[in-house]
Amino acid sequence: MRRGFLSDLFAGVVAKRLTLVETITEKSNQHEFQGTLPLRQLLGVEDRRGVATRFIWLSGEQEALTEDGFMSWSNVRKGKPRAPEFHLYYSTNAVTEMMRADDMLFIALARDGSLLAVVTPAESTIQNQLLWLFGLHDQPMFGFTFQPIEGSSDAELDYIARYILSELGIAPGEPDARELDTLIEPFGLTMPPTRTFSELARSSLPHLSAPDDPDRVLVEWMDREEQLFRRLERRIVAERIAAGFMAPDGADVDGFLSFSLSVQNRRKSRAGQALENHLEAIFIAHGVEHRRGAATENRNKPDFLFPGPMQYRDPAFPASRLTMLGAKSTAKDRWRQILSEADRIPEKHLLTLEPGISENQTREMQARHLQLVLPSRLHVTYRPAQQGWLMNLEAFLSLVKERQTGHG
């Protein structure tokens, strides 16, 4: 099934590190960028006044701000016998007021002619994710870098790309959803348990083999379940909105807010449960002994314990043959939670599907004896200096098998 490409959404992007004069501070109130060649490559040489722009500031977990405003692109020497000089002006808003020197700015030209301006702190995870998404392999410095969305820079909208776009509040539609509609038809307008959805996702991709390629299989299963879930969720939400939110005394604002919150919470909890469901299926396919959610010390419950709680509680069982794995669809700052979940196991393992985690975070993980495990497809979203340390799922399975046979 065709998933679409980034070029369906954007024509091109520019990125740069912000200088002090380009931000709104007590020392600068410029509200503009010089129209250098990369900006002309993105916006052309015709004036564009009042271009609708969505401004987004993104940092760490639950740190995001979005405001709608505008940008204007104009030749300030138009009509004068001098070489053109373009400037890009931006409207003041809560996002632009948060911009600081050294932050990374991305300006993407959407297919509908609008602009997307995203500001991220330097060296942050979201910065790395956007650099990968837009095909900016060399980190931009204080001058704009232009990248057309084409060729090798035209990312397929797979699970990884859609994850990053979701951080921007963008949910691309499915170009061909007929197969999905057929699969979810039996559920009507009722959301089934996550385990049921996980089983459906796996059974709908019979050509995949968990024993042969666990890294690919995990991503494909998660991708399919995400497609199925979002498709059914859209139906359910549309039906509820069509019914309206009315109370006897007028609009039911509390009811609407409660429904919206329930939708968001369901998305978050479902993603984590789905990841555990698919990992469990892979462990079973590989014949590794494990226990999901077994209790260790202080009522802690690692997502997966290998071989299991009986061996973990047996002082005579060598700690070197024990393994624990935390599973989080997104790591963000929550990865530290697993550090105290199994005292007998000094080196912890964490599997996540989060692309491009910052070098600062991975250095801290290494210092805390936490090994990051990612499906092979995600390794390219990390910096070259990080990639040699990363472990894929196949390597993790080999490690567990060695320990369980006593050869590790």
From TrEMBL:
- Keyword Hydrolase attributed: yes
Q: Superkingdom of the source?
A: Bacteria
A single Pfam family, by name?
Answer: EcoRII-C
Q: Does the keyword Thylakoid apply?
A: no
**What Gene3D superfamilies does its record include?**
3.40.91.80
Q: Where is the Restriction endonuclease type II EcoRII C-terminal domain?
A: 229-397
Fetch the InterPro entries from UniProt. EcoRII_C_sf, Restrct_endonuc-II-like, Restrct_endonuc_II_EcoRII_C
Q: Which UniProt keywords apply?
A: Endonuclease, Hydrolase, Nuclease
The GO biological-process annotations, alphabetized, read as: DNA restriction-modification system
Alphabetically, the GO molecular function entries are: DNA binding; type II site-specific deoxyribonuclease activity
Q: What is this protein called?
A: Restriction endonuclease
**Organism of this sequence:** Sphingomonas psychrotolerans
